[in-house]
Amino acid sequence: MPDWTALAADLDAADPLATFRDEFVIDEPDLCYLDGNSLGRLPKRTIPRVEAALRQQWGGRLVRGWNDGWLDLPVRLAGMLAKVLNVQPTEILVGDTTSLNLYKLALGALRAHDKRAILTTSDNFPSDLYVLQGLGAELQVVEPDLLESSISADTALVTASHVAYGSGQRSDIAHLSEIARKNGAWSLWDLSHSAGVVPLDLSTADMAVGCGYKYLNGGPGVPAFLYLRSDLHETVLNPIQGWFGQDRPFSFEPEYQPVAGIAKFQVSTPSILSMVALESGLELYPEAGSELIWQKAVSLTAFFIDMVCSEMPGQFEIVTPLDPAQRGAHVSLRHPEAWRITRALTDRMNVIPDFRRPDMVRFGFSPLTTSFAEVATAVHRLTKVMKDRIFDELSDEMPTVT
Question: Which residue numbers are catalytic?
Fold first, then answer.
């Protein structure tokens, strides 16, 4: 059996991104945090920046802060995020939430289209499904492997998660977007589980949304983003007409006149303090480099899968694809006792994964913050949970957040 601890040490020693771990707050060295796909760690540089925004800008400058750079912050963040998504800064808008951005783009697309059918997948994020259910369109939900064959001449919009939140299955954006286009449909992708870790090429996609608090380490509830291909800017309009999408918001005209370009999808006042935090997270991405980030994500997930299969053969079903080209940066294990196993890891073994109903333990690997030693320790502790059946000692009571 391999010496996983020694192998992890060798991999960490050779890791070109190893020093980035020092950029983050790690108050518990013994904690194995494998939930960065749900909430990324706090960058150290975020703390003084948010404090300065509180004390010096808000505290000192008060309303004058809007002319000291606050109004320009969404544009500045769009330029930074464009490098992550490999698109033009004028095609990105930072603000609101993922669900709200999905609503704006989906409804805007429907209003601009002569068809009403929306096609999505059963493994799409539930909030996305809820938004789509509320649009009053003809919604067709299919199994992921039937998405391509279900696109037809009646389809107006094809929308799915790029990386499925549960299984970690990755969709082929280029291929599916092209199939949609050939059928006269547009494509809309949720990038929440891929932005900042999976290499992206949105050149064939029409629209996308995503969040900044997972692999981009922007902080809980940080503003999300939307992408709209430039040639659709005058065709797809924002169905929520707010004052920050107005041509001259501070003229306070009674009639709405949208500003040109992507900025028309702004609705109301930007969340400045959260955007300051997001800026720190986005800075780290080009410093590390997208290719190295993805290479490490592949290595971390492969190391975890190999170790689980070696140490606990047959005890879990690995839901996530074994082919790196078909997965993101998290791995889900299926087991009938998944919730109590998750509790045992969190409450007894100082390992934080997360649980996804009905029977999956999900482990996320954030390349800038996760070490191979951390992964090896986590799997050793999981092995002990399974060998000693520590989960038998725990109840199946669930908290609000799992």
Answer: 125, 190, 213-214, 362
Structure-block tokens of residue 342: 């998750």
Report d(CA 390, CA 148) in Å as an integer: 43
Within the chain, all domains assigned CATH 3.90.1150.10 are found at: 4-30+289-393
For residues 291 and 320, what is the distance between their CA atoms, to the nearest angstrom?
Answer: 22
Using one digit for the tens of pLDDT, what is the confidence trace for 133-147? 999 999 999 999 999
CATH class as words, domain 4-30+289-393: alpha beta
335 phi and psi angles, rounded to 5 deg: -160, 140
Tell me the whole-structure pTM to 2 decimals.
0.96
330-334/351-352 β-pairing: unpaired
Which residues, other chains included, contact 146 with Cβ-Cβ below 8 Å and sequence gap of 6+? Answer: none
- 47-287 CATH fold: Aspartate Aminotransferase; domain 2 (3.40.640)
pLDDT in tens, 54-83: 999 999 999 999 999 999 899 899 999 999
